[in-house]
């Protein structure tokens, strides 16, 4: 008499978050490299990095066209996307495999962060 037991167990976890102001683009995914770009799209008001008005310039982070205190005319943190005001730290997961006989593997992880400088011109004064 013989007996046998077969069993399997599978776990999958997905992490997701809303990022309406940003778009994640996978640049490469092959046996040696996986990479993504995360690009800014536009604010809740529809302004993007290239928006321009002949009188007001780029209103990307301008609170109001009618506000006359330039140094206080930046969009309030509470009105910005949480990804801008709260910091942007995306989570990523990657499954790595190696040949059965591999004794050693080299894994390089690179994370780059880029900042933009926003300038608000108001008459003959500039605020940063």
From TrEMBL:
Gene3D superfamilies: Leukocidin/porin MspA. GO terms for biological process: cytolysis in another organism. Residues 2-127 form the Leukocidin/Hemolysin toxin domain. GO terms for cellular component: extracellular region. InterPro entries: Leukocidin/Hemolysin_toxin (IPR016183), Leukocidin/porin_MspA_sf (IPR036435). Keywords: Signal. This is NetB toxin. It comes from Clostridium perfringens. The gene is netB.
